[in-house]
């Protein structure tokens, strides 16, 4: 399984299943408690967004979650963490089975996050960008009391604008550097990434969060890349101008979010490292997973409260994660 584009620049396949689960069910899939299952891997930054948003909004009772293991092969993510290697709700060994149940000739990527219709066992969507926004907007009836407004109407234009550049230069930018097949393609991606991180540092030096004084969808999207930066992207993807810990504003911002309920308690550094270093054998042929970096510094003081802001706006923090969804001991920042 190869990831590097030998001819130069990495281009992400963005052909996702655009079906949406909506309050009015216009695509044939209405929002219904208990009907759907969110399939994720804690290793994946795109899936990590959905884990965080589901948790912040308090959707655990209405949208169950299946967690695939950190590694996969050409066929897809597997449920090797579950007894017997099968998802206990869907009864399948591989996420691929849900995709083929709906599209027998499916020829695109089998990706997480994905939402599966439990009664039919068919995938509904894997459109990760739209998925989290729909959890905020279309599932609003089922949000917990005190759920934050992650995509408030008055900030949507600003959030969308930030998300666009963060995706192009940072979220996908680390992959464009890591999977580049020529020196020039790599250096182009490298400079684009760090130029954008410098701009984000400047923005965040004067405000606590990307869209202002409360956490929004934009912060979720940037966080899942930053939290993987030193553990994976700095070395594995050669994004090594500086570590995150050497970028004072972004490091403080990332720690602020990490220490916010619903963010750091979703992070499994063991799975993150296993995924990248074991799966991308064309970059890391030995499959050896680095022992570092040290992680206790994620829990140090960040000082971002001095900028003011109200993390959850008029809402409140989510309760602690449910026992079945707690990151295993030794896999988080206390490792």
Automatic annotation (TrEMBL):
Protein origin, superkingdom: Bacteria
Residue numbers annotated as active site: 44 (nucleophile), 175 (proton donor/acceptor)
Residues bound to glutathione: 77
Chain ranges of the GST C-terminal domain: 152-279
GO molecular function: glutathione transferase activity
Region (Disordered): 306-335
A family per Pfam: GST_C_2
Residue stretches of biased makeup (Low complexity): 326-335
Sites annotated Lowers pKa of active site Cys: 233, 276
GO cellular component, one term: cytoplasm
Alphabetical list of SUPFAM superfamilies matching this protein: GST C-terminal domain-like (SSF47616), Thioredoxin-like (SSF52833)
Descriptive protein name: Glutathione S-transferase
Species annotation: Actinoplanes nipponensis
Lineage, highest ranks first: Bacteria, Bacillati, Actinomycetota, Actinomycetes, Micromonosporales
